[in-house]
Design brief:
The protein is built from 7 helices and 6 strands. The protein has helices spanning 3-19, 36-42, 57-72, 75-79, 87-90, 94-97, 125-139, and strands at residues 24-25, 29-31, 46-52, 80-86, 106-111, 114-120. Strands 1-2-4-3-5-6 form a 6-stranded mixed beta sheet, sandwiched between helices. Strand 5 (106-111) and strand 6 (114-120) form a beta hairpin. Helix 3 (57-72) packs across helix 7. The longest helix is centred in the N-terminal third of the chain and has 17 residues, at 3-19. The chain is globular, with a radius of gyration of 17 Å. The chain starts with a helix and ends with a helix.
Length: 140
Amino acid sequence: MNRRHFLATTAGAALTAVMLPATARAGGTLDYSPGLIQKHLADGKTVFVDYAASWCGTCARQERVINALRSENPAYDQALVFVRVDWDDYSSHEVTKSRKIPRRSTLIVLKGDQELGRVVAGTSEKQIKSLLDVGLQAGS
């Protein structure tokens, strides 16, 4: 492959990635859009919400722990809907303000009109597993 072909292919792939809306992330996590959480709650689902920023080291650590726990226990994916709220886009939005989210790296579990649990800036496997287990029990 010559350099010109490589650059054209790479540029085309990058442009496609930017232009297509990302609604699902790796591991079956949905990117938040207005109304998404309420829709799943109205459908009777238990929702695990991750308020995160791409540049946040704590958020990245939380994501690694969450993904590892989900890999170990597929029941989490059966019982919970995982939604990531981009802090850069929604820190001043109703989805953040209405739940009094203090900062990025906040994880919450919701069922109906109730918050069942919350972890703020916690990265330990024990804390995050405990929150996932609360969601698992509510989703069963």
